[in-house]
């Protein structure tokens, strides 16, 4: 295209968009505010431990394969994958713990052990999940939406009820299984899409196909290692990668963006792509009259959770844990209410996620030690003081010990607590959200923020706020959609 393109942000969204623009002939510069590329998928090194700071689940591998194929490349040339077995371990408190594995017959037996007929129910549920996933990939995810008529297309109108667009996931799952353990396994992924399962559209039952059929993997050197692979692709394509450089203003003239001002100078551009926080870009980088969305719009959004994270280097092995570990409270609705209805630090029996990547990658910790990532979803916008963090960490150490038998407060060699104000400081995250916007019905597809700015036509957005939404695979799809739009507009 022969255009100068600036990409704001060097996470998966920015890197994936930059590579596509360079492929299409643009001269591309990525400008990242932090010292390392990767966005949320950065490393943190401390005393021989290497922590993945952000995403920790590698799902939907075919999206990554497709992305690299757009360049005539193979994903394994940039990072290698290891399939996990078990996929993950789930703790249910007094009802024990179970493992989900690549052996689907074992998963059927597990569901049958939960309730009579549970195995057949899982098979039936997975059949519809697979069907929905194939429809979503073919008709919905790789399609941009500029007006509501494009969303309510013929297939949606004829199969809307079957696809579960209008129903709620929790009610839908209850039509197949009744045991709370079975239901939670089929619904938990909604938390990582920033949504309460009781409010998520039933179409998101597709996540069970992603989870139990497509499999769970681990990239060599972690998710930050995968981000490095995307950065290496960019380098091969001639993309200029600037770190420790923050965009402070998108400069416009006659209704178009002409460049960006940074703390290290001005960069001219014909096209700008922001993979920075959407709300931050709108409220801090452009003029109020140039914004697509008002303050009222943002105030009414259902913002996805923030995360209370503890990065821990433990000086011994934790034998009762797998790579991925989850705890689901018997009444997890109380935890969701603390996030979405009455924002507060989850106090009564909070759910949590615990990652021990040393189970797969021993090099991430010194010999005989464990690399631990403890995560609790919490409401965005909460007060976040050092005292609050330490008190909550102490509470969670006791809670984890009670649930798993492992004492995370013992033999601690490295400790770092990370939550709201870190997400704000490092990523300008709206209300300290870790994920962006929740996936409610009216924040799905055409109802998510636009890929193209309304008042500045050569400013585009990629990342978790836009369609198709939260998660690294969705972000890659978003970048593909805007690259296609930019090519069609400027490549004529």
TrEMBL record:
It holds the Pfam family Amino_oxidase. The keyword Zinc does not apply. Its EC number is 1.3.8.2. GO terms for biological process: carotenoid biosynthetic process. Residues 13-486 form the Amine oxidase domain. One of its GO terms (molecular function) is 4,4'-diapophytoene desaturase (4,4'-diaponeurosporene-forming). Pathway: Carotenoid biosynthesis. Keywords: Carotenoid biosynthesis, Oxidoreductase. InterPro entries: Amino_oxidase, Carotenoid/retinoid_OxRdtase, FAD/NAD-bd_sf. This is Dehydrosqualene desaturase. The gene is crtN_4.
């Amino acid at each position: 295209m022969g255009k100068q393109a600036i990409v704001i942000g060097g996470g998966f969204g920015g890197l994936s968009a930059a590579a596509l623009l360079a492929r299409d002939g643009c001269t591309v510069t990525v400008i990242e505010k932090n010292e390392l590329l990767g966005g949320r998928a950065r490393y943190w090194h401390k005393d021989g431990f290497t922590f993945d700071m952000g995403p920790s689940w590698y799902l939907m591998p075919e999206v990554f394969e497709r992305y690299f194929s757009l360049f005539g490349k193979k994903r394994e040339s940039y990072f290698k994958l290891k399939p996990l077995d078990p996929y993950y371990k789930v703790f249910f408190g007094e009802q024990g713990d179970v493992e989900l594995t690549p052996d689907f017959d074992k998963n059927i037996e597990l569901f049958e052990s939960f309730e009579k007929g549970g195995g057949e129910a899982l098979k039936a549920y997975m059949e519809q999940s697979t069907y929905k996933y194939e429809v979503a990939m073919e008709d919905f995810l790789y399609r941009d939406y500029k007006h509501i008529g494009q969303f309510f297309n013929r297939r949606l109108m004829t199969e809307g009820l079957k696809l579960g667009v209008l129903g709620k996931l929790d009610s839908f799952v209850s039509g197949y299984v009744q045991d709370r353990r079975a239901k939670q396994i089929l619904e938990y992924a909604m938390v990582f899409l920033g949504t309460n399962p009781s409010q998520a559209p039933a179409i998101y039952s597709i996540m069970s196909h992603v989870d139990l059929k497509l499999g769970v993997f681990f990239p060599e050197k972690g998710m930050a290692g995968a981000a490095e692979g995307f950065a290496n692709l960019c380098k091969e394509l001639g993309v200029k990668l600037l770190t420790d450089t923050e965009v402070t203003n998108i400069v416009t003239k006659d209704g178009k963006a002409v460049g960006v001002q940074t703390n290290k100078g001005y960069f001219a551009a014909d096209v700008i792509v922001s993979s920075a926080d959407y709300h931050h870009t709108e409220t801090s980088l452009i003029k109020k009259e140039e914004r697509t969305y008002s303050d009222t719009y943002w105030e009414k959004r259902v913002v996805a959770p923030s995360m209370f994270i503890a990065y821990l280097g433990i000086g011994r092995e934790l034998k009762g844990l797998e790579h991925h570990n989850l705890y689901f409270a018997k009444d997890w609705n109380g935890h969701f209410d603390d996030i979405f209805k009455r924002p507060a630090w989850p106090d009564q029996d909070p759910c949590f996620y615990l990652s021990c990547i040393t189970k797969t990658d021993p090099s991430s910790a010194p010999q005989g030690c464990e690399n631990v990532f403890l995560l609790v979803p919490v409401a965005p916008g909460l007060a976040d003081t050092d005292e609050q963090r330490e008190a909550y960490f102490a509470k969670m150490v006791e809670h984890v010990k009670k649930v798993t038998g492992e004492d995370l407060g013992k033999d601690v060699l490295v400790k770092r607590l990370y939550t709201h104000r870190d997400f704000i400081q490092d990523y300008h995250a709206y209300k300290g959200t870790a994920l962006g916007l929740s996936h409610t019905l009216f924040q799905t597809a055409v109802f998510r923020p636009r890929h193209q700015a309304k008042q500045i036509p050569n400013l585009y957005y990629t990342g978790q706020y836009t369609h198709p939404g939260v998660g690294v695979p969705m972000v890659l799809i978003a970048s593909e959609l805007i690259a296609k739009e930019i090519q069609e507009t400027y490549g004529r």
